[in-house]
């Protein structure tokens, strides 16, 4: 038997503020969470298979100790931070930051898989893997690629890409959605990846025409459109899948006069407000409320951006509220590469387009304007008429007049209230 483990490494620090509230495995790129991309079938696999679990392999997540309890709550189907299975003969350790074209086979020679100079996976005899645990792999330098190649005597180019910074999720979102479409496997839209309840099981592949499609809806390239049960699409809406597929999950409400341009994934329970324009490269939900114009962006579950205003090349966590007429810039006037503050230190993204990155449980006031590459931390409030700084730390109450520390107890109370409005209750592990 092979024990398959998705692990976090020291790279989590460059993915803040998105991974305060979730493990790397629960980040989303394309239609799926990252862990789903490794446990579901490889390209060419049969729909309905479950990858490693179909082969009787053990699956585990190794995460930061602070996230162990909440990860167990959200994903009880996995063991979390458990030692290597004593019955395992081989252990396949997969870096959760790796966007693989195809997950590596469980069986094979002892080797280190290398992607962009970093460890993408390690296939080890069980005796060697027992020297490792979740804490050790979080230490900087513990996964030096050349050291492992020397130690194992074998290194393979793994292909795919590594998620090194938040914008890598946005940059690769279209490619991953197209890959998801080719796979034709169950939809992961119900998995909240950072709400307050357990992840729902994957629902069957969405039928081409579920739900209710009102007269006066235009479906362009209908074969590339999937609409789930209980969903409704109101008149004068255009679903344009000529340049990429469109997934609409279950119990989604698409209001009148909307335009949706694929590839786009709108996950279960989401409301799209009248007149919304959802452009290519966008993943939303589940259970979001969205409006205005959204392009090349990822919104996790239970977040609201339901009023007019532009959101582009942005990535928002869960339980966020973007107030009316708020906008972000995703392109500099010089058309040059955008510098982004990662943990308060500027990094050259090398990208022409980078929008807003915002941590979970953060709110913005009306008419907020965010400059290119702005990062706002976890559980903060931004209430400014002028552009806020390009880096706003976590637990910050920012106005034009001052920047103050936001009392965590008060923030927790507000978070409970916000979750309660969606009939969700914050668990003790989430509070911690």
Please describe the structure with a list of short key phrases separated by commas or semicolons.
432 residues; alpha/beta; nine-stranded parallel sheet; seven-stranded mixed sheet; globular
Overall, the morphology is globular
Fraction of residues in β-strands: 25-35%
Task: Describe the main β-sheet briefly.
Answer: 9 strands, parallel
Widest β-sheet, arrangement of strands: 14-17-20-23-26-29-34-37-39
Nearest-integer average pLDDT:
89
Parts with pLDDT < 50 across at least 5 consecutive residues:
42-57, 185-204
Tally of separate helices: 9
Can you count the beta strands?
41
Structural class: alpha/beta
Distance from first to last alpha carbon: 36 Å
Helix content: 10-25%
Cα-based radius of gyration, to the nearest Å: 21 Å
Structure description:
- By secondary structure, this protein is of the alpha/beta class.
- The protein has nine helices and 41 strands.
- The strands form nine sheets. The chain has a nine-stranded parallel beta sheet. A seven-stranded mixed beta sheet has the order 5-4-1-6-9-8-10. A six-stranded parallel beta sheet has the order 12-15-18-21-24-27, with no helix packed on it.
- A hairpin with a 2-residue loop joins strand 32 and strand 33.
- About 8% of the residues have low confidence.
Break the fold down into its secondary structure elements and pairings.
Elements: E1 2-7, E2 28-29, E3 32-33, H1 36-39, E4 58-62, H2 68-74, E5 79-80, E6 90-95, E7 98-99, E8 111-115, E9 118-125, H3 126-129, H4 134-137, H5 145-152, E10 155-157, E11 161-162, H6 166-171, H7 173-183, E12 212-213, E13 218-220, E14 225-227, E15 232-233, E16 238-240, E17 246-248, E18 253-254, E19 259-261, E20 264-266, E21 271-272, E22 277-278, E23 282-284, E24 289-290, E25 293-295, E26 298-299, E27 304-305, E28 310-312, E29 315-316, E30 321-322, E31 327-328, E32 339-342, E33 345-348, E34 357-358, E35 363-364, E36 369-370, E37 375-376, E38 381-383, E39 391-392, E40 396-399, E41 403-405, H8 408-421, H9 428-431
Parallel strand pairs: 1-4, 1-6, 4-5, 8-10, 12-15, 13-16, 14-17, 15-18, 16-19, 17-20, 18-21, 19-22, 20-23, 21-24, 22-25, 23-26, 24-27, 25-28, 26-29, 29-34, 30-35, 31-36, 34-37, 35-38, 37-39, 38-40
Antiparallel strand pairs: 2-3, 6-9, 7-11, 8-9, 32-33, 40-41
